[in-house]
């Protein structure tokens, strides 16, 4: 079980010559919370004043076909939380949740176990159609997304929201849907701000597509501040009983150095060459911590695809049967605790240049669709009751779609180009200016670390 910092880290950030450098002053932990809230600042996550690394698992008993929310069923979640404690994880990602159900008990039990939750705000029924994205970006869809935010943002242990999962895949035509995913990210961040909620980070979980990995990553962090993500995550299965170089992870550190926002692996754990989880050592080492903030092992429950580490005979089975990988994963986490200190993070956020069109990236414009007019009322009135996991879903709603492109910086919801929140993101607001790397390097960070107990 983790302890929180006894004596806060003192971080002093001095900026020289950078365009509006952002001081990293993580929020103090809430006194009421069983767990301190996690925030994104610079290119890292913070638990109170301590650098936070995702050390977790992907959790979706029954897989996507079961369409079952494990956090809405106390028997299920409590059974598995007991196992999560044995693993020693601090985060779970849940792909499918029911925004019409209550989650108090499971979320509290998770908080009591020191476990944070990353929520996918979409699900198979309410999602963007990668090959016909326009019609699926509609009011009905955003109502469900926003209702999921309403439901989970009330919990201090909600770590982040995903605005989409692997919408863009290895079919190059799906790159045309990236502007809709980015619009959803923008809308979610705007909704959180307009509803005066806690600034829970929002970002996208990308498939690991070698041809356009960097283009997609750059796309999600380019443009005006309102259009950028709070973090980027991708799924990666390239470490197969191998090492930092042979897996290509060294290149993935190099390529993402200076990316400008937090990154973590939203899925990892190759199975094609056995599993030793030696990637955990790399993730927690200074080879990676300056750029990456940990990751989520795919996955907890054993499904047909054979990745899971815990077999569950039936959804409500009282106990689970740990598989070979269970002890191995627990051992890897234990042997590789979260590093102390700041991990060599970068204190400022920055945008990067938008990718240009080529054979692997078909978008030829950086303009995003404006939020569908019907969805604007949610900003002032709230989303109301969520549709849950029933009904026809939103992809074929055939109405309430976007009617044009948004002016960057406005999202067509407000005419204000940047917000107080955005002002704390590096001051790029209003123009798609790439800040020179030297401006980031010009920041002098003096970090005094005293008496901190770490994960
Ligand atoms: C991509 O779209 C083009 C143009 O509509 C079409 O000709 C092609 O078959 C599509 N490719 C795939 C793999 O779906
Ligand atoms: C790193 O970036 C280069 C240049 O964009 C690209 O060719 C290469 O595929 C990238 N490598 C990885 C592992 O993403």
Cofactors and ligands: 2-acetamido-2-deoxy-beta-D-glucopyranose
Average pLDDT works out at 85
Helix content: 10-25%
Low-pLDDT residue intervals, each spanning 5 or more residues: 1-25, 27-31, 413-455
Q: Give the end-to-end Cα distance, rounded to a whole number of Å.
A: 8 Å
The number of helical elements comes to: 13
How many DSSP-defined strands?
15
The general outline is globular
Class derived from helix and strand content: alpha/beta
Secondary-structure element pattern, one letter each: EEEEEHHEHEHHEHEHEHEHEEEHHHHE
Signal peptide: 1-19
Main location: membrane
Protein name: 1,3-beta-glucanosyltransferase
GO molecular function: 1,3-beta-glucanosyltransferase activity; hydrolase activity
Care to describe what's here?
It contains 13 helices and 15 strands. It has helices spanning 63-66, 74-87, 104-112, 133-136, 139-152, 178-194, 213-220, 249-256, 279-283, 324-335, 376-381, 420-423, 437-441, and strands spanning 10-14, 38-41, 44-47, 50-52, 54-58, 91-94, 116-120, 158-165, 202-206, 231-236, 262-268, 292-297, 310-311, 321-322, 444-448. The strands form four sheets. The chain has an eight-stranded parallel beta barrel with strand order 5-6-7-8-9-10-11-12, surrounded by four helices. Helix 9 (279-283) links the parallel strand 11 and strand 12. Helix 2 runs parallel beside helix 3 and helix 5 packs across helix 6 (178-194). It is globular, with a radius of gyration of 21 Å. The termini are close together.
């Amino acid at each position: 079980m983790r302890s929180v910092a006894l004596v806060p880290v003192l971080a002093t950030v001095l900026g020289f010559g950078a365009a509006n450098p952002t001081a990293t002053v993580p929020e103090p932990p809430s006194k009421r919370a069983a767990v301190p809230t996690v925030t994104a600042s610079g290119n890292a996550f913070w638990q109170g004043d301590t650098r936070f690394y995702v050390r977790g698992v992907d959790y979706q008993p029954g897989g996507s076909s079961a369409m079952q929310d494990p956090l809405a069923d106390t028997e299920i979640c409590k059974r598995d939380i007991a196992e999560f404690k044995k693993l020693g994880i601090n985060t779970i990602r849940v792909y499918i949740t029911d925004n019409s159900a209550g989650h108090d008990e499971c979320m509290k039990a998770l908080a009591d176990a020191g476990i944070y939750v990353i929520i996918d705000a979409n699900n198979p029924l309410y999602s963007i159609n990668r090959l016909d994205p326009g019609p699926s970006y509609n009011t009905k869809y955003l109502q469900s997304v926003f209702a999921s935010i309403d439901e989970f943002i009330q919990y201090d242990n909600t770590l982040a929201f995903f605005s989409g999962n692997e919408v863009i895949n290895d079919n190059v035509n799906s790159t045309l849907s990236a502007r809709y995913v980015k619009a959803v990210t923008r809308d979610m961040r705007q909704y959180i701000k307009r509803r005066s909620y806690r600034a829970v980070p929002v970002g996208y979980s990308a498939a690991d597509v070698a041809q356009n990995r960097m283009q997609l990553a750059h796309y999600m962090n380019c443009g005006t501040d309102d259009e950028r993500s709070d973090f980027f995550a991708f799924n990666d299965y390239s470490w197969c009983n191998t090492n930092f170089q042979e897996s290509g992870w060294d290149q993935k550190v190099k390529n993402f150095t200076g990316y400008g926002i937090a990154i973590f692996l939203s899925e990892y754990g190759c199975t094609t060459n056995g599993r030793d989880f030696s990637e955990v050592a790399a993730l927690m080492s200074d080879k990676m911590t300056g750029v990456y903030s940990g990751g989520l092992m795919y996955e907890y429950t054993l499904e047909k695809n054979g990745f899971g580490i815990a077999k569950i005979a039936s959804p409500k089975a009282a106990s689970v049967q740990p598989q070979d990988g269970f002890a191995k994963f627990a051992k890897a986490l234990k042997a590789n605790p979260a590093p102390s200190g700041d991990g060599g993070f970068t204190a400022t956020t920055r945008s990067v240049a938008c990718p240009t069109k080529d054979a692997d990236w078909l978008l030829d414009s950086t303009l995003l669709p404006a939020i569908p007019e019907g969805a604007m009322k949610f900003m002032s009135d709230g989303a109301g009751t969520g549709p849950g996991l029933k009904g026809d879903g939103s992809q074929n709603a055939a109405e309430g779609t976007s009617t044009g492109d948004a002016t960057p910086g406005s999202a067509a919801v407000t005419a204000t180009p940047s917000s107080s929140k955005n002002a704390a993101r590096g001051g790029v607001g209003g123009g798609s200016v790439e800040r020179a790397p030297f401006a980031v390097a010009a920041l002098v960070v003096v970090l005094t670390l005293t008496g901190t107990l770490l994960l």
